[in-house]
Amino acid sequence: MNIKELNPESSPQAAFGARLRAARLEHNWRQEELSERTGYSSTHISAVETGRKMPTLRFVRCVDLAFGTGDHFEREWRQMRHGSLLEGFPEYVSHEGRAAEIRLYEVGVVPGLLQTPEYAAVINAAAVRRGALTSQQADERVSVVAERQRLLTRAQPPLFFAVLDESCIRRPVGGREVMDAQFARLIEFAELPNTVLQVAPFVMGERRPMSLPVTVLTMPDRSLMSYAESSQRGHLEREGTAVLPMLTAYHQLQAEALSQAESVAMIEQVRKGTP
Known about the structure:
Blueprint lengths: L11 H15 L4 H8 L3 H8 L7 H11 L4 H10 L7 H8 L4 E6 L10 H13 L5 H14 L10 E7 H5 L4 H16 L4 E6 L13 E5 L5 E6 L4 E4 L2 H17 L3 H13 L3
Parallel strand pairs: 1-2, 2-3
Antiparallel strand pairs: 1-4, 4-5, 5-6
Helix pairs in contact: 1-5, 2-3, 4-5, 7-8, 10-12
């Protein structure tokens, strides 16, 4: 049998494939035997083991079931899948997808949960040109944006409050066509029955209770957690004594921000190019 040699250090995908092969060999299974247990062809399994194909979430769950490894391979897959993301962010995303309520405040850029694919692609392409990301990492980040947005269409979507600093809608990204589609997406978001969209205008000045982006999650058990980022990593805070003041500040921000109707009107004005 011609077994292709693997270099696990060549990429996270290759490392995952090497671990999959090692687990299969520990069970003394041929690829055909793992194929029978997972429902995937031996050709597919070979492509994953040799790093030629990126495994899907469904595939790794089938592998965990076949090996009886709980969620071991799923956790490895998520770590690999989110390898290009800011440290701490993948942990936050795992909670975000289960939240009953989401409250976010963003400055300077439309937040990922509200971005169009084109807007997200432009933002990440700029990071590639700066040398901050590889093309593959940029593609992964755009995919993660799309995955996160599925929570908006799940059977029981969260109650979602979004306050955007005026800079989010004033900052041009990708040209007129990209921005026009992004404005349309924001207006569609405001029309959903479970959402509230507000703009915090520049004229709020010193009345603005917070100046940095933050997200506060309310989980199904009504526990609270907040998430904020520095340039180096994201920080998930679960301690209620630290989260409650942030929630209070968020309510103060909402009280001072434009109403949803006024916010949509401002977005429409910017969309039309009027001051």
